[in-house]
Specification:
about 190 residues, mainly alpha
Length: about 190
């Protein structure tokens, strides 16, 4: 809400300043303000503020949903479940938590990897490759090891370690101030196993 209020205040300042410039310019052909229409600037800033506020709300909801999905998965009785039930629970967890990632290609790759149509032996490879290709070009140096990993050779324990590092870098970047809450919840769930 503070972002939205700040954008409105900025728009009001912009409008008052450009109105003064336009008023002073009336005798000289009524030149437009050098920054463009104050209404257009105000509308643009409101749009940016609204989108930022919506993204923040979406991220908060995605983190809450992911934490709930982890809790549900932790309570799931894998010993009593069929293979299909375990796959469905895993799919639910991944599809729910995929919403935390801001990059659409990574989200889509995660969902594709865990769809019912995907060969289970290819799931991790599809997820890692999709997210690596989506994020690594824009991540700053030093990049996570996954960014330079050869995914052609399946080494599951290496892939898992690389995913954990990559996931932390990406989600810290995507979620900002929401990330410590997710990290704490994940750590708490890991210690309860």
């Amino acid at each position: 809400m503070a972002i939205f209020r700040a954008a409105i205040e900025l728009c009001q300042v912009c409008q008052s300043r450009s109105a003064g410039v336009l008023d002073r310019g009336r005798g000289t052909g009524n030149r437009p303000h050098p920054m463009g229409s104050s209404r257009a600037i105000g509308t643009g800033l409101l749009f940016v503020a609204a989108m930022s506020f919506a993204a923040c709300g979406r991220s908060r909801r995605a983190v809450d949903d992911c934490i709930a999905a982890h809790e549900r998965a932790r309570a799931f009785d894998r010993d009593a479940a069929t293979g299909e039930q375990v796959a469905d629970e895993s799919r639910h967890l991944v599809e729910t938590c995929a919403e935390m990632y801001s990059n659409a290609a990574c989200r889509a790759g995660m969902k594709k990897a865990w769809s019912k149509e995907t060969d289970p032996s290819q799931r991790l490879h599809i997820q890692l490759e999709s997210c690596r290709d989506a994020y690594c070009p824009e991540l700053p140096e030093p990049k996570p090891a996954l960014c330079t990993s050869d995914l052609g050779h399946a080494v599951l324990n290496v892939w898992q370690t690389q995913w954990v590092e990559f996931d932390e870098v990406v989600l810290e970047r995507d979620l900002g101030s929401l990330y410590p809450r997710l990290k704490a919840a994940r750590q708490a769930m890991a210690t309860r196993r």
